Amino acid sequence: MLYNFESEVPEALERLLETEMDYNVIIHTGEEPNFKEFHVHSIILRCRSEYFNNLFSTENIEKRDGKYIIKRPNISPQAFDIIIKYLYTGQFDITDKTGADLIDFMIAFGECMLNDLTKFTEDFMFRSQQQFLQDDPVGILQIIYCYKIFARLQEYCLNKICSEPKILFSSNKFTQLSVPLLEIILKRDDLNLKEIEIWESLIKWGLAQEHVFNRDVTRWNQNDINTFKKIVDKFIPLIRFYDISTRDYFNKVKPYEEILSKELRDDILKFYMVPEYKPVYTPRNPRYINGSIIIGQEHFTTFANWIDREEENTNYIDIPYEFILLYRSSRDGNTAAAFHAKCDRKGATIVVVRIANSERIVGGYNPLFWDSDDSSYIGTYVGGSFIFSFTNENGLRRANVAYSNNWRRSVYSSPINGPGFGYGDLYVNYVREPSVWYSVTSCYPTINLPNTMSVDDYEVFQVIKKSLD
């Protein structure tokens, strides 16, 4: 008969690590004052780590009094403590660690060729929704910019900052941002910040560099102007001046006008004074994610989680669905005919409705399709359908979602109506009033919608599962 006592092995190895019995390796990690010496066993490290096996196989490894001596000043004691416990026990605990801690660990994991731990930690950062950027966005960006292993994390952080720029631009360390990183961010077309605020941030950053400037720009001499121009010159082409109002240009840009080239100043003046003049430039469209003028990137991420019925919100780097704008009532016509012409037989869709005179957003997901070919009303139970509500356009943490409770009218469509969910749970009746949506709890658990809602716009997106290729 076979008995399995393998659970005792990690406990025994953990005791061996703690007691340091018969250790033959001394590893120095970190530098004073953050320094620690570890006493471990080469046979265990060889068995558990390709990195250490290769290291012990080299001829020039240092030995003293029969013990191997390894020095790793670039690996912090905290990171190596995680590594060594994993190698001895297979246990790996990174809960309650800060973003800076996790990045420090990932650098150490990368050096020790522990690719599984690197990926696990990165995925943990995405899944756990830690606000790891909040405390020190500049410091974290500077670190991940220097290491190739952080390519995915860097893209995640840049996307996060572009959708919520105050994380970075309101940081008291913003002026310490490096030139390459500032350039990367200002090049982004999806930076969700007014152009005049981008300009003011650039001025703030430039004034904080090595030269000491008088805060009153009218008192600058030619040397001050030339020095400041040299500091910010490479960023000037990244400012979309044509998106700055004449009032803001006069009050906030013109005082620094001498740092702009004469050709640029003349072109801006022509843009302001000649109505038919169209400058060649790419405006930023941070709010027009997937063509939407109502919601942003994080809403689509939330929808993907709801479609997959994830218990916890997953911060996808690459959302597994495409959201294609089919219809916008303010653009295509707020009629049943216009809705059906754009949306019928297009497969799964998500409907996003903006309530007038508020920031509240409601809507629903239809995993099947809309149809008005038949003159009769169409009602059916559709597994996975849901309705939702956001209290305001940035209120993702206070979002409510309710899935169909198996009633036969999970979705509802007819030639005279627009999209409908449940037996009146959320719908628009174009015969009654095209700018009013209605809600009576019936086929879905309540999400506390008003019975009537005045609507100023709504959008419908086709939802397509991405290929795994």
Automatic annotation (TrEMBL):
Pfam families: BACK (PF07707), BTB (PF00651), TLD (PF07534). Gene3D superfamilies: 1.25.40.420, Potassium Channel Kv1.1, Chain A. It comes from the Eukaryota. InterPro entries: BACK, BTB/POZ_dom, SKP1/BTB/POZ_sf, TLDc_dom. SMART domains: BTB. This is Uncharacterized protein. It comes from Rhizophagus irregularis (strain DAOM 181602 / DAOM 197198 / MUCL 43194) (Arbuscular mycorrhizal fungus). The lineage of its organism: Eukaryota, Fungi, Fungi incertae sedis, Mucoromycota, Glomeromycotina.
